[in-house]
Amino acid sequence: MKIFLDVIGCRLNQSEIETYANHFRAFGHEIVSEPGEADIAIVNTCTVTVKAAADSRKKLRRASREGALEVIATGCWATLEPEAAQNLPGVTRVFPNQHKEQLVANILKKSSDEIASLTLIRQPIPGERGRTRAFIKVQEGCDNRCTYCLTRFARGPARSVSLSDIHRDIQAAIDGGVKEIVLTGVQLGAWGRDIPGQLGLKDLISSVLGNHPIPRVRLSSIEPWDFDLSMLSLWRDERLCRHLHIPLQSGSDRILKRMGRPITIREYVHLIGEVRSAIPNVAITTDVIVGFPGEDEEDIGLSKQLIEKIGFAGGHVFTFSPRPGTAAYDMDGRVPHKVAKARNAELRDLFDQTSKVYRDRFVGQRVEVLWESSVLLDDGRWKLSGLSDTYMRVFGKANTDLRNRITSVKLVGHHPEKEGLVSLTE
After folding, report:
1. 354 with 313: CB under 8 angstroms?
2. Which CATH number applies to 248-361: 3.30.750.200, 3.10.20.30, 3.40.50.1980, 3.90.1150.10?
3. How far apart are CA 308 and CA 302, in angstroms?
């Protein structure tokens, strides 16, 4: 069969469709780049915001409209609204999150033992989902009680993927030629808490570094209260990327409390200080929500001050999206959409400024870049785009195709049009 895979949302969703691709290929099926070529199209949906849910529906409709013979919905939106998903034109089946691990086995009528015995080799998914990095799912579910979030309802409680399964997935990625893996989960810092032996994320990272000759290991988002400071010693291994995404959400203690986030700004600032003391030139990126119910000008002012004070290497800004079923949905003090939109723009501009300041320190320096894309130019050279271990986008040119290779380059300045740096032509 020919299978088309698509995804909305987080890195965990991306990791899951990469796993589906590995399994389908191992059984002799082909992954295609367009739904019109497919016997089956599978869309891993998201519901973190109203827009994500709408985009999920759009992708399901597109798969049907473009000719996929069968369309299957899975993921968070399909889990929370299975009837709505099933009623979309062309959708033939819905796999809620609690059954998505058995999706491939169910479709192919294979047993769990047959799936477990597969020899897996990861290959990039064709089309726009093709990546040189491999997202490795190490954890599922969430025990947090953030008042704006539906994820814990859609994904269930926090639970860990076993070390043996994680090592198997990493080896499949290495066998497929991957140079960087990203350890990802809904609540990454909760890994190991449900495994006998009092394991933690530090143990997982140590095991990965100790057992796999992978050039780069990166962590996905980790909540500040889940960050074990003893992990910082692990960054003595240069394969561990100097980039940490630590969500903030607001610079106001009052709003953080309304959000149900168990941390204060003082504690957050202290954590960032400890991280920076241990990891020179580390890139700290974050998430911020604007327009949360009750947010006023003083609160948004505190967020601006904190962003400037910390000097984030980058950040995502989300406008509060009221989701039925969450505690925040019924809170008073709704911020007018026009006001929230203006605040969003202000914070995005501020992150652009702090990101540029962070990148400034690397101009004139040499960095290692994993080249992720390459385009052959008319002059026979290759136009390249890749990432440093600090998650800076780097653009360059070379006489050979360096895609999926790591090379050392000298950074000569900021790109005139894009957010990133330009390397010396080599």
Report:
1. yes
2. 3.30.750.200
3. 10
Q: What is the pLDDT of residue 131?
A: 63
Domain boundaries 132-241, CATH class = alpha beta
- DSSP 8-state assignment for residue 377: -
pTM over 0.70: yes
Helices vs. strands in the chain: H and E counts, helices first: 13, 18
Q: CB-hemisphere CA count at 13 Å for 172?
A: 28
> What letter represents residue 136's amino acid?
I
Cβ neighbours for 273, distance < 8 A, ≥ 6 positions apart: none
Residue 230 scores a pLDDT above 60: yes
**Per-residue pLDDT for 348 more than 80?**
yes
Q: Which option is the CATH number for 1-123: 3.40.1180.10, 3.40.50.720, 3.40.50.12160, 1.10.10.10? A: 3.40.50.12160
Angle at 254 between CA 191 and CA 258, to 5 degrees: 60
pLDDT in tens, 86-120: 999 999 999 999 888 889 998 999 888 888 877 77
